[in-house]
């Protein structure tokens, strides 16, 4: 069964079209990530699914039921917000139980579900504290706990990690992945960070300017991007784009090579001047200028390359991508 | 902490300036209070002297207690001020929430219309207000005053509160909606506690003009049983003779309740400021 179906969803604010003809399906138990640059409409799309915004046209179905006019609390969803959005005047226990009380659940059920969720998220020591007495990571766990206790058909995450520092982000990311396995629920996760998208998703939806650019599993999108935008958006460092004329190929088209597919060789076809070297220990990133085009090579291991040196890069032909002047993939 | 701020010389200068200002601000109040405890002759001979065994007199307070129903006036003033404030805060906050939270046609226009009241003094409409009160039979009731003061306080309240409500996180309100809270619960339980400092500001701004007003009580409710404190005190000020003992005593007593209300609100104000600072 499908957990969520969006059919021809359009949304405009006044004359500004924010979402254009969106069609997405989320299967039961699937982890779907909406990813795109800021302003691409991904958060609006999530708010449309949650019922916090109405669609201008199109259908939103959750679990097969038409939900266009259903208020958020009746949609069988739970949402985790970027800024945690905990109720400041309630302690952790009451924050988590409020929604259940509103639904009219019995005390016993509430207590049981809160206990289960707080155990799952290691929140038991903080259960009687107030949000102001918790750290950022703990607050985010409470926010997730508040979603879990409702046992929703669909979880919605709105950039839940962007307020956390780097180390905590990685831990919480793993926790969310674990949670998805344990709960076996459908989840939709919005982020602008392609690493989160690649690591968490069963299916990635890449959005740009309010429309879907490509949908697929992380590796599908990585290995087989439909266009230059998707190719450039996924992968870090991002794909190198070189005018094909520079290597004597048909003019107007663009050649794309992933940084890890470049290697140093004395007789390579790409000649460039090194401008900067990043020694990461495990990898070495070499940033070089090839005429007026910056290219980045990600070399495995440690390499002694100095800024200012001329280098030559080689690549294998079948690991390259070609795009026409409009950015569409040429095969 | 900033080092410059801990310099003892700076600290002394800062406190010196603040103490000086406090003294200047409190001096008239101080003079009123000490003179209210002196005999009439002592007030005129040495207005700045403290009451001593010879000049001490409670004649002013006795006059006030004897003449007119001072406690009734007191009660009237208190009822009018507290009820007006409560209505201003309640309706002001509700209107501000609607203006800042919901998108509807004419939202900006409505906001401007409400803000217009800040620029036009309500007293211009006194004749029309009196007409309306006569027509509705509200003359010489406390409701006449309460309604007028509520109308007078709303524009500024809506203006200040809507600005603050815009700053309340959208995520929090949306979290409430996803959790199934009604819009009223979101307003009363989530938003109002967060704008408490702004509410205190609005309350303080509105409280003193209402308490001190003489104009509307004189016009709309001059009857004995609806007189407010300020109006009641006027009986001691005559065209030719003024009973200064009584006037000063009445004023001294009138200060007290405002002081109490102010202390309540200012504590909220300070709490709001500090809780924001050490987030």
UniProtKB/TrEMBL annotation, chain A:
Keywords: ATP-binding, Nucleotide-binding, Transport. GO terms for molecular function: ABC-type maltose transporter activity; ATP binding; ATP hydrolysis activity. CDD domains: ABC_MalK_N. Pfam families: ABC_tran, TOBE_2. It comes from Ruegeria halocynthiae. This is Carbohydrate ABC transporter ATP-binding protein, CUT1 family. It comes from the Bacteria. PROSITE patterns: ABC_TRANSPORTER_1, ABC_TRANSPORTER_2. Belongs to the ABC transporter superfamily. One of its GO terms (cellular component) is maltose transport complex. InterPro entries: AAA+_ATPase, ABC_transporter-like_ATP-bd, ABC_transporter-like_CS, ABC_transpr_MalK-like, ABC_transpr_MalK/UgpC-like, Mo/tungstate-bd_C_term_dom, NA-bd_OB-fold, P-loop_NTPase. Gene3D superfamilies: 2.40.50.100, Nucleic acid-binding proteins, P-loop containing nucleotide triphosphate hydrolases. Residues 4-234 form the ABC transporter domain.
From TrEMBL, chain B:
It holds the Pfam family BPD_transp_1. It is a multi-pass membrane protein. Keywords: Cell membrane, Membrane, Transmembrane, Transmembrane helix, Transport. GO terms for cellular component: plasma membrane. GO terms for biological process: transmembrane transport. Belongs to the binding-protein-dependent transport system permease family. This is Carbohydrate ABC transporter membrane protein 2, CUT1 family.
